[in-house]
Design brief:
about 450 residues, TIM Barrel, Rossmann fold, 3 domains, 8-stranded parallel sheet, 3-stranded mixed sheet
Length: about 450
């Protein structure tokens, strides 16, 4: 049974030295109990305490890192079955599979297009996470050359796919340093693949034909080689098998603390899809339940953007809404006569109104109030977006110094605040704007004169 934070605290040096990154030993113990921090982070832990706390300190799902530096991909280290229980920590990586027998120009074009894809969503840039290079040719030299070609166009993490240890060794010579994922060790080649993982200090994927007993046995074997970062491929490909198998693995790892399955899972939705739409739907299912790395066989914005957006939504901490910094934002190049609009610092709200002002061609001053990341109605209901808060923002940000008028537009959903706001800002005229951001352009056209 897992230890509580207080039980773990008893084993710690109790010096509050902060070397672990936490202000107190008790705070560190609480994080270890939640399985979000490894006990080995404490540098002053005695050997006896370390041994006693090893089980409590290791996350139920091992953290696995591909790549290095700023381009690394981290998966695993999850602690709950459902997002609402707490949060999910590491979004599944979306990687594109390319084949080594493709013409060099075509291969590099595929990689470049995917590597350069970037779209902004609520202030964050969404991108692909890596590439999987498959040894389709069965030739070691061709495989190594393809890996070299991919690296020439991208520094994103790699998954190397081959069942041949000799071909894998040739590819690793071109891919390291960089910690690619070696895919995969099976019942026939596991020992040689494990030796390559140890030698090159790379994570190793372990695959089976769908039987979890076989997968567990392979994990035990490669673990004895000293490999800690393992990725599981249980062999489930279609919708039903993928959902049931990945859920079973997650449940065994979290609820039963079954260590041999306490690792992230890699999936291949394209292998069970007869069309791009089916691949997208299966990949979406695996984003939610419960893939760590998703290998796509096709790349297009129409496929990738919905997956990236869905992943962002699912892997946003429900207790910490995405928010922007409270401030005055200049939309376009506003003048002294330009509109002054009020909004909250919830990212979706902010980017919605900012985007609509830009699309409508309105240069404006946008006052972003601190509502702790809550949307307009939610913040108003919680007492975090009231007349006093709006007036304080207008005064503290000194918006009056930037404009020659005294007119301010508040969101239509909080029209009820108009009277109170007129009392808080007696020198200002309060205009009640539209309820929906999409209507702001038409509203200003009818009600505002520069």
């Amino acid at each position: 049974m897992a230890l509580t934070g207080i039980e773990i605290y008893k084993f710690l040096p109790k010096t509050n030295c902060k070397k672990c990154g936490f202000p107190t030993c008790l705070a560190f113990a609480m994080k270890v109990a939640q399985k979000t921090v490894n006990i080995t982070t404490c540098p002053d832990l005695s050997a006896e305490s370390r041994a006693a706390l090893e089980a409590a300190g290791r996350p139920p799902i091992q953290l696995v890192t591909l790549g290095s530096d700023s381009k690394k991909l981290e998966v695993g280290n999850e602690t709950v079955m459902f997002r609402h229980e707490k949060t999910f920590f590491h979004p599944p990586g979306l990687v594109l599979r390319v084949k080594d027998n493709a013409p060099a120009d075509s291969l590099q074009q595929q990689v470049q297009a995917a590597a350069e894809y970037k779209v902004e969503r609520v202030g964050r840039f969404l991108t692909m996470d890596g590439f999987a290079v498959e040894n389709t040719s069965k030739d070691a030299a061709t495989f190594a050359k393809a890996v070299e070609a991919v690296k020439s166009k991208s520094d994103l993490p790699l998954v190397l796919i081959s069942q041949d240890p000799a071909a894998m060794e040739a590819a690793l010579a071109k891919a390291t340093p960089g910690r690619p994922l070696i895919y995969a060790a099976n019942k026939d080649n596991w020992e040689k693949m494990a030796d390559l993982a140890v030698k090159n200090k790379c994570p190793l994927a372990v695959s089976s034909n769908g039987a979890l007993d076989d997968l567990t046995a392979l994990v035990d074997q490669v673990s004895k080689k000293g490999i800690e970062e393992i990725v599981l491929d249980p062999g489930a490909r279609d919708f039903g098998p993928s959902l049931s198998t990945l859920t079973q693995i997650r449940r065994l790892a979290l609820k039963k603390n079954f260590r041999p399955l306490g690792y992230p899972v890699i999936t291949f939705p394209g292998e069970a899809a007869a069309s791009l739409d089916t691949e997208a739907m299966l990949a979406a299912q695996q984003v939610a339940k419960y893939a760590g790395i998703i290998v796509l066989d096709h790349f297009s914005p129409a496929l990738v953007y919905p997956l990236l957006t869905m992943r962002l939504n699912i892997y946003t901490d429900p207790q910490k809404p995405i928010q922007v910094t409270p401030q005055i934002v200049q939309i376009g190049t506003p003048k002294a006569t330009s509109p002054v609009c009020i909004t909250t610092n919830f990212s979706l709200t902010y980017f919605a109104i900012a985007g609509e002002l830009e699309a409508a061609g309105w240069a404006a001053w946008l006052v972003v109030c601190d509502t702790e990341g809550l949307s307009v109605l939610t913040a108003w209901a919680a007492g975090k977006f009231d007349a006093e808060k709006i007036a304080k923002s207008v005064k503290n940000f000194k918006i009056a110094d930037n404009v020659s008028h005294r007119n301010v537009v508040i969101p239509g959903h909080v029209a009820v605040l108009r009277g109170e706001l007129e009392e808080e800002l007696p020198d200002w005229k309060i205009l009640v704007g539209p309820r929906e951001a999409v209507d702001v352009g038409g509203f200003l056209k009818q009600n505002w004169k520069n």
